[in-house]
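[agent] plan:
  1. take the single chain provided in the ticket
  2. run structure prediction with default settings
  3. attach structure tokens to the ticket
  4. add a short note for the reviewer (M.T.)
[agent] executing step 1
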Amino acid sequence: MRFIGITQRLIENQEYYEMREVLSLDWGKFFATQEIFQGFLPLPLSYGIDFTKYADKLCAVILSGGNDLSCYNDTMPSMMRDRYEIGIIEYCIQNRLPLLGICRGAQIIAHFFNSTIESCIGHVGQHAIYQGDETFIANSFHNYMITQIPSNLIVLATAKDTSIESFKHKTLPIYAIMWHIERENGLHNTQILQEWRAHIPNII
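[agent] step 2 finished; step 3 output follows
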């Protein structure tokens, strides 16, 4: 069995003050039922442990959704996530470790590469995704959209308003998807996910 590391959402408990790391149950169901990740287990990454302690146990990393980027919402959870995930991005670049950003994860990757991110409306619920000549419906739970990326990134899919719903790095195994693959209506199209998965070596 091999591990794919997943960053977690950070929340502040409302009943009494306590910062908590949480990972949606959807991720466990996703790994248990989707053939594309057969033979893998999700390994939740803790913010209290340096990522390099995990790195040699992992064959890939997913930056999950949840929390705004700190440049748009400067809360403690957002700032903590930014610092931790930027360190992961840097490690993945240096070591060519496959990296996949989902929703907020896509935004932090876009931000790392100096893309343009703007607030948006109409991106909560289901909406159409345009990938080449194909159109499919996906879920959507974000209030910020990626509108422009630099030349070292490639657009893979867009929304009706031309905002960028998916992109990849030109030379590194780094991919980003704005919809939630682990939730309902997240896998109407798996081409991009399959392309990223192909970067993970089929060895134990």
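[agent] step 4 note for reviewer: Residues 7 and 90 are 15 Å apart (CA to CA).
[agent] ticket updated
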